[in-house]
Amino acid sequence: MKFCKKYEEYMQGKREKDFPGVGLKKLKKVLKRCRRDLEAQRQRREGEEESKCPCSCAVCDGTFFPSLLKEMSIVVGCFNQRAQKLLEMQLASGFLKYFAWFSGNSQQNHETLMQEGKDLVTYAIINSVAMRKILKKYDKIHFSKQGQAFKSQAFKMHIEILQSPWLSELMAFYINLRQTKVKDEAIMRPFGDCSLTFNDDKPRLSCELFESMKIEVDLTCSICLDTVFDPVSLTCGHIFCYICSCSAASVTIVDGLKAADPKAKCPLCRQEGVFEGALHLDELNILLSRSCHDYWEMRLHNERAERLRQAKKHWQLQCQAFMGF
């Protein structure tokens, strides 16, 4: 079965629950119309070598990219909102937990929460694949690289859904629930599902769909080159240890990432302004602490000592500034 048909069948069920999607059929019609126009131009210029779409295509640039940009923004916004709501309900404590109980949100059982988490991960991946396939088709028809350029633009605008920090958190959330419910190690093996794997002692979150689509999230901090500890995801989607990200942003642990300079850049992609909206990945932190217990205990001991050192230094500077020397 072709991907477009799989996608339409999948989204047909999702639209009943108010999940927006990428209009593949509509965008393909735009490209088909453009192809007909190109064929007509080629027939009129039979003796000419030039038969490619011009750099500025009125048919596509006026309809295709604005439409895709709008749809991607809506899809990412919906995914982030629903993922945040699900995870906040799961991690709620104290008054928030009682409020969720009284409002009826906590009456969902374990299997329902697992299914919701898995459905949201599937929704993110399949829409990302849909976006990539339609852009690839655009470049094929136009003999251009404008589709690739649009992908780069989408990444900078934070509307590439696989870039969302909530995706890694949802995958960890699903695995945590599954480990709590099922203890059989045989069931925990990758089987076209979300899983945490270790290749050469390097942890990765992975998820497969339709036995052919697969994403992997590397959980190695590119600053300390070790497994991320107390992980945070910057708004560009890259994951680091919290203490490493504070160091990269030139702020102390006491001040936190919200105190980072708006022009501070991600150590990997060099995007500016990615620290203020950083997200603590609590579910991923729980998953790694269970899976790497000895390593986690060692890092926890070292981190406590470093946090204490930085806190003492911070308050010493504050006292000195207050006393005027």
Description:
With 325 residues, the chain is mainly α. The protein is 57% helix and 8% strand. It has helices at residues 3-15, 24-44, 58-61, 64-91, 95-103, 110-142, 146-156, 165-181, 242-248, 282-291, 293-323; strands at 195-199, 202-209, 213-218, 231-233, 239-241, 279-280. The strands form 2 sheets. A 3-stranded antiparallel sheet has the order 1-2-3, with helices on one face. The chain has a 3-stranded antiparallel sheet with strand order 5-4-6. A hairpin with a 5-residue loop joins strand 4 (231-233) and strand 5. Helix 2 packs parallel to helix 6 (110-142), helix 4 crosses helix 8 (165-181) and helix 10 packs across helix 11 (293-323). The chain starts with a helix and ends with a helix. The model is unreliable at 49-54, 94-98 and 182-191 (pLDDT under 50).
Secondary-structure topology with pairs:
Elements (H helix, E strand, L loop, with lengths): L2 H13 L8 H21 L13 H4 L2 H28 L3 H9 L6 H33 L3 H11 L8 H17 L13 E5 L2 E8 L3 E6 L12 E3 L5 E3 H7 L30 E2 L1 H10 L1 H31 L2
Antiparallel strand pairs: 1-2, 2-3, 4-5, 4-6
